[in-house]
Amino acid sequence: ENIFDRSKMAPKTPIKNEPIDLSKQKGCTPERNPITPVKITDRPQPDPWTPTANLKILVSAASPDMRDREKKKELFRPIENSEQSDTPDSLQYDIVDDSTVDEFEKQRPSRKQKSLGLLCQKFLARYPNYPMSTEKSTISLDEVASILGVERRRIYDIVNVLESLHLVSRVAKNQYCWHGRHNLSQTLKMLQEAGELQYGELMTSQHKDQDLEYKFGERKKETIPDSQDRPLLDFSEPDCSSASANSRKDKSLRIMSQKFVMLFLVSKTKIVTLDIAAKILIEETQDTVDHSKFKTKVRRLYDIANVLTSLGLIKKVHVTEERGRKPAFKWIGPVEFPEKTDELRGYSPTSDPLPGTQRGASVQYQSSASGKQSFTRHASFNSAQPCEATRRKVSSEPNSPHQEKQDGNCSKMINLAAVCRQKIEEDTGNKACDTEAILNSAKNSNITLPLSLLPVPGDSDFCVNPLPQAVFPVVQADVPSFSLPVGISSQASHPSTPAASKTENGKPTLVPNQPFLCFPSSSLFMLCGGLQENNLSELLPTAGELGNRSAEAQAAGPPPVCQKRSSHECSSPSAPGDDEEPAVKKQMLEHSFLPLSLVVPKKPSESPKADSSPGSGCSAAVHLEVDRFDPASPAAPEAANKESIKPLDCQKQEKQSENKDPDEPPPGNEHISKENANQPFQPQYLYVQPTAGLSSFNFLFSANQAPGAISLAANQMPSLSVPCVMVPSAALASFPLVCSPSFTSPLSPAPDGSFSAAASTNFSVSSLASTPPVFISTTAVVTPKVSPAPLVDPQQPPHPPLHLSPVLTRSCSAVKLDSPVCMGHPVTLLKLQQPSSAPLTPKSIRPAHHEAFFKTPGSLGDPVAWKKNEGNQIRNASSVQRRLEISSTSPD
DNA sequence: CACTCCCGCCAATTA
DNA sequence: TAATTGGCGGGAGTG
Asked: What is the mean pLDDT of residues A490-497?
């Protein structure tokens, strides 16, 4: 602020303008400046800072964020007052962006703008996620601090956390070495292992997360004390120059950061509430439970969480408990850690530049390869075995037979789901209680940890993944709207069971032969296009993606990431291979989860219920709103996840009909669409029926879109385009299905104006490309679902899917998209095709996409970002990506 | 009012 | 001793 003021006020006083500065600087006299890089204060003096300079920097870095925020605000408003907010706001923004933004921003430093999270994003934007092997960028704290316009102290906060994850290492005084995310998966793996040792017992012992967590505290005291810290430290040290780093004592921030991450990795639900984390951390460290200490710990956790959020590893959520909402964070980073990063790298060229985005892209490929993919943790990459195993299981079930190779994927998916379900059910039998208990504990509808529980504790890959997803449901998204409708969830189950096993009523059925998965569940439908390996993976991912990335920073497109990023990577020399690995992993995980969640979800009993009780949750499901907030922001992704999750919840929590938010859905759509876009391959759609809340709107999400992205460079646009379409129910009524390829146009329904705007911006390009809104339609099948009213009859839903399936599937199977039915996006569909075999690998392909991807976002989002890039010498691409990420977020 | 978490004092550590 | 690091908690911004 001071700086700004100065600039404004007195543009240059060489002297420090104000005493304040001096005081702040404390001892910094001009003299010192020369010696040391100078502290922040120095810079200000120089005036170099002129507002513009700072502004530029900030703007470039932050603007996206800023925008996002604004957008968010808008979004909210829109909900209430769609019209007003939309136009005016959008206009204003635009204007601002164009010319005057700087000034405005400058003027208002608002606290948020100075947040550590934003600062961290800016910081991260300066370095490639996956720096080339050779490149090593050293980070000068002073320099960075000055560039970012913050005190060095703040940089320490960031660097310490990054260091705990080995993203950077301290080389010397004032010098850090940027490693990027190459080792992130390894680091996380180590942390996970360490965490399991420390906390694992607790976790395993208790089904309930909460209980576990609580217990943790107790147990931790017992177990933890001794070794914990050490190991962690060790991890961190390996790469870097340990010498200097170690010296300092524990550096609580680093340790806390690692422990905090461990909690996530160990947690089945992947959700950790701040208070629990604080308790655990305190306990470990010390017995004292001073209240003040607790507060301090929480403050620190916020600091850490902000950085982790910027890295796209966690996102803020709220867990509803008995008492009420509790702040919590959900792990959205990779869950599984391939043992070999290398493999990953090989497969997935792309990296995700964005922290947020990580998930994405690579995963798909991998998944495709393995089939099951992500489900199995390590195996995913390598193991065919698991897949097979799953298949076998599946095979037993009805669905499997149909599937073919490609289908196999789908089938696998299904099978997996089925398996999971079975396991779950079995487990549930036991656990059910637990889950229920949890739920109960959770109380009201909101929180639901249970899902996590569901997943099998054991090894089953599936289980693992699923669990996390399960979590989603529990957690409430930041967004208010979230509440997921329980009812729908049942659907998820369907897929697994029904499809595979078939069963029931139909709910989820897979279409025979077809790649699609139908979730009968009332409100949500997931259609999966191309079956191939990719498909499954995609599907899942899509869902996951939706949840995850949604917008987010990932802008990069986390989910889709694979493609996009890969392309990005390509474009950017730096990362290609390596980068992606992590991303892939993440994606894998996420994806797997999502899908799983969908599938797994329901406990047998519930599903039917859900269906039966349309009113309750089901409707809600529709709402899934995605977070519209910031695309970039983590929240969005979550929302998506939530969506996926919701169904489950619904089932479980039928009660919670409340959840649904009408408003939200749209946003969610957006995110989804993005994600979808990302995933090009198969046409997968999620259809969300409108629930009461949504009343009027129907949403179709294409799970995969992006095909174009993948295949066509030109398509870039498409990739961007969002698959989701929102359609007013009324409209739908007339039409069987609506799919707009690009999310923008059509539907964007009004309400969203703001959203739509954002979306449009982002997507606009894509939309253009894809423009033709596709429609999915087709067959009646869709229609029914769409039909506004659809009660949740379980049966019905299934039917539709069936109908669809044939068409879709076929088309899908071939290329996925081909069939008219499916997707609208010409691009995606056409191109998609599947590369199944190659798909993943081809970096070459990706690049184009990525680029496109970037461009679009960039173009949409911010030109500015690009400009800024200048600074980034390093990999343009990388930097660009980052920017994009940021930008992307902003647009959203 | 509760949640966040910025800010920067000041101590520990290092150079 | 000066500078670098980073623990820590007051208290302000937000919703």
From this structure: 31
> Is-contact A631 A892, C-beta < 8 A?
yes
- Strand-pairing partners, residue A328, are A273, A317
Q: What is the pLDDT of residue A202?
A: 55
Cβ(A468)–Cβ(A331) under 8 Å? yes
Report the distance from CA of residue A171 to the C1' of nucleotide C6 in Å, as an integer: 17
Q: Which residue is closest, via its CA, to the C1' of B15?
A: A173
Burial class (CB in 10 A: 0-12, 13-18, 19+), A766: buried
Digit-coded pLDDT (tens) for A353-403: 333 323 222 222 222 222 222 222 222 222 222 222 222 232 233 333 333
Q: Please give the Cα distance from A640 to A659 (Å, whole number).
A: 15
| Residues A376, A389 contacting (CB under 8 angstroms) | no
**Nucleotide nearest the Cα atom of A290 (by C1'):** C9
Whole-number Å distance, CA A378 to C1' C10?
47
Distance A348 CA to C11 C1' (A): 48
Q: Which of A244, A259, A123 is nearest to A180 (CA)?
A: A123
Nearest partner of A245 among A178, A301, A183, A175, judged by Cα: A175
In chain B, which nucleotides are within 7 Å of a protein Cβ?
3-10, 12-15
pLDDT in tens, A792-829: 333 333 333 323 332 332 333 323 333 333 333 332 22
Give strand pairing partners of A518: A509
Q: What is the pLDDT of residue A167?
A: 87
**Is pLDDT at A462 greater than 50 in this prediction?**
no
Q: Is the pLDDT of residue A739 over 50?
A: no
Structural domain boundaries in chain A: 116-206+248-331
What does residue A613 show for φ and ψ, rounded to 5 degrees?
-95, 90
Of 3.40.190.10, 1.10.1040.10, 1.10.10.10, 3.40.30.10, the CATH number of A116-206+248-331 is 1.10.10.10
> Which residue's CA lies closest to nucleotide C5 at its C1' atom?
A156
Q: Which of residues 212-251 of A touch strand C (CB under 7 A)?
A: 248, 250-251
CA distance A645 to A626: 12
Report CA(A319)–C1'(B1) in Å, whole number.
Answer: 20
As a rounded value in angstroms, the CA-to-C1' distance for A115 and B4 is 10
Reported as a single tens digit per residue, the pLDDT across A11-63 is 222 223 333 333 333 333 333 332 333 333 333 333 333 333 444 444 444 33
